Structure formats: C-alpha cells, structure tokens
C-alpha cells in the first residue's frame, strides 16, 4: 500500500504554515543561527494535527474511564471463571458490549499518530542536497532548497546525532560538535517529556492491578523513553522537534481533559487517584477482608505527584479528662481568678 497520500498531506500542512509565516514577515534568514519560519512550521504542524485528533483523544479518556468503572465486574468474572479462559473471554466481550466500552479505544490516538510521525520522518529524511526529486509531494525547488539548509542554532534540521562529517558538510553545518550537542539535548528532552506524559496519565488513573495491564503501563512509562535513547540518535533534528512539541502539547491537553473528566469514584467513595497507597494496602493494614479496588490509586498533586497538605483531624485533639479532673481534697477553683493556684502550698 502506497503512503504517498500521507507524505503529500504532511507536506501540504507544513508548507502552508511556512507560507503563512512568510506572509506575516517571519524571515527565512537565520536569527541566532535558526530559521524560525521552518521551526514554527513544524511546531504548528503538531498543533494542527492535535486539534484534528482532539475529539478522538476525548473519546480515549471516556473509554478509559468506562473501562476503569468496569474493573469490579471484570474482577468478579475473573474469579468466577478462573481456569476457563474461553468462557471468561466470552463473558468479558459481552460485558463490554452491554456497557458500550471499547478496550481498544485507549490506543486509537497513538495508532493514528504513527502514520503522521512516519510521514514527517520520511519527508524530512528527503531533505538532502543530493536528492534528485526536490519537487516530489508538492514542494517547489526553492522551498526544498530552503528547508534543506534550515537549522536550529546552526544545527541543520535534516541532520542527526549520528550524521557523519561528510553528511554534515553537505548540509552546510559549520561545527559538527555543536550539531551533536544540540541533537543530544533534544533527544534527552524528548525522553523526559515522553516519560512525563505517561507518568501524568498513570498518576491520575492509577496503577492497574491486573499483571498484564500493569506490565504494559511499566513499558509505557520506562521502556519507551529508554528506547528513544537509541532510536533518537537516528531521528533528524526536525523530527525530534516535532516529537518534543507533540509531548508538550500532550501534557497540556491531558491536564485539561483529566480535570474535565476526573477518574470515576470507586466502591469506597474515593476516586482512582485519591490516595498515595495501593487500594489493598489499607485493607491489609487494618485487617479488613473486603474486596480490593481493581485499580490501584495514583497520586494527587499534579504532574510530579506532590503529596496533598495534611488535613486537620475533624474530631480535634484528644483531651485526657482524667488528668483535668480535680484531685481528692483539693479546693474548687474560681474560674474568674485563673492566676490563683487550685491548691495552696502547705507551710
């Protein structure tokens, strides 16, 4: 199957944003070693795509909430049909159908962004002075030449961390070390923002109790950012800029959506992210034998999981009434003369 239509669409959006910045006076020349018109074109390519995918993202959050609310019933089915995988799968599919929940909806936005990422990767990889087809996918020869020699702080956008000295010379890089430093910094930022994006979602929705789901969460949280340490060195700088911008947009978007659609209440009246301890920890500590929440609680306090301020005890401090009671043989105390001792010293 040809992906030319994706490459044409990505190129069209990118070039239309470049035309806009050119029309409002953003120079194609370098300022601080940067061609800002092309940098802004990549940034607003992300904004355009995320706005288009925003309704899908909202459906993803709603689907995750529905799946989370169904976890007690799923747990009951797992206990009821333990050892009978075929019946369990049939019952779970029936449950999802009745409750109108789709477990695959949570991955849909990511799947939709993969072709976009691959399309941009292909388009930016073509930005090479030796490319014999500069006008492919709707580019003009002048646009292709300008994009090929565009840079971020003198680091060409088509360059990679692993680019050879010969490649950098063809792209017009003046200092190979600067290119590697900028590429390395961007890759580290890409890893950090990818980690924070996954962490933000887990902090708000909680760790799943199901071992397989929890393993997937751990993979998303730690495995993907670590894999970018290797794969990031193969990405053009322009693609890394796209990825970082996409992550920053995701952080802001998730924060808004998670506030608009908070986690559903659990059986104990708390939300899925209302405690810093796993759901079963309180029961284990207190000796209770009630059912545990199927989703372990996350942390509150925003992106970095700051603990909430300690709440005062509504019952107030415990007062020892025995210690305040008068001793046998002591004289009564006049409340209007508080400075006067209750017992006179014996001479």
SSE order and pairing:
Layout: H1 4-23, H2 36-69, H3 71-80, H4 85-99, H5 108-125, H6 141-148, E1 151-152, E2 155-156, H7 165-170, H8 176-205, H9 211-231, H10 237-260, H11 279-286, H12 321-324
Antiparallel strand pairs: 1-2
Could you say which overall geometry the principal axes of the C-alpha atoms support?
elongated
Average pLDDT taken over every residue: 76
Calculate the terminal CA-CA distance, rounded to whole Å: 108 Å
Q: From the alpha-carbon coordinates, what is the Rg to the nearest angstrom?
A: 30 Å
Order of helices and strands: HHHHHHEEHHHHHH
Low-confidence stretches: 272-308
How are the strands ordered across the major sheet? 1-2
Largest sheet: 2 strands, antiparallel
Q: What percentage of amino acids are in beta strands?
A: under 5%
How many distinct helices? 12
Summarize it.
With 347 residues, this protein is mainly alpha-helical. It is built from twelve helices and two strands, in the order H-H-H-H-H-H-E-E-H-H-H-H-H-H.
Can you walk me through this structure?
Helices cover 57% and strands 1% of the residues. The chain is mainly alpha-helical. The protein has a two-stranded antiparallel sheet with strand order 1-2. Helix 3 (71-80) packs antiparallel against helix 4 (85-99) and helix 8 (176-205) runs parallel beside helix 10.
């Amino acid at each position: 199957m040809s992906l030319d239509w994706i490459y044409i669409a990505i190129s069209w959006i990118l070039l239309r944003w470049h035309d806009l910045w050119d029309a409002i006076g953003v120079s194609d020349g370098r300022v601080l070693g940067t061609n800002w018109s092309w940098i802004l074109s990549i940034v607003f390519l992300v904004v355009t795509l995320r706005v288009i995918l925003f309704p899908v993202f909202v459906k993803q959050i709603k689907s995750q909430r529905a799946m989370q609310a169904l976890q007690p019933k799923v747990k009951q089915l797992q206990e009821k049909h333990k050892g009978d995988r075929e019946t369990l799968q049939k019952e779970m599919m029936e449950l999802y159908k009745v409750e109108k929940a789709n477990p695959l909806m949570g991955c849909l936005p990511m799947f939709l962004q993969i072709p976009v990422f691959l399309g941009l990767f292909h388009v930016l990889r073509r930005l090479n002075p030796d490319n014999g087809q500069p006008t492919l996918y709707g580019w003009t020869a002048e646009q292709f030449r300008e994009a090929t020699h565009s840079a971020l702080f003198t680091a060409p956008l088509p360059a990679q961390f692993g680019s050879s000295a010969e490649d950098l010379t063809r792209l017009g890089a003046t200092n190979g070390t600067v290119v590697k430093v900028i590429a390395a910094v961007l890759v580290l930022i890409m890893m950090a923002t990818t980690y924070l994006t996954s962490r933000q979602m887990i902090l708000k929705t909680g760790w799943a109790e199901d071992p397989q789901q929890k393993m997937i969460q751990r993979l998303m949280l730690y495995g993907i950012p670590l894999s970018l340490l290797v794969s990031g060195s193969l990405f053009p700088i322009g693609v890394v800029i796209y990825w970082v911008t996409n992550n920053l947009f995701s952080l802001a978007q998730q924060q808004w959506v998670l506030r608009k659609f908070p986690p559903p209440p659990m059986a104990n009246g708390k939300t899925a992210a209302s405690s810093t301890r796993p759901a079963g920890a309180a029961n284990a500590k207190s000796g209770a034998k009630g059912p545990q929440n199927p989703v372990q609680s996350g942390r509150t306090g925003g992106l970095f999981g700051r603990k909430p301020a300690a709440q005062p005890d509504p019952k107030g401090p415990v007062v020892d009434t025995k210690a305040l009671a008068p001793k046998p043989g002591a004289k009564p105390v006049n409340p209007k003369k508080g400075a006067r001792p209750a017992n006179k010293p014996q001479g």
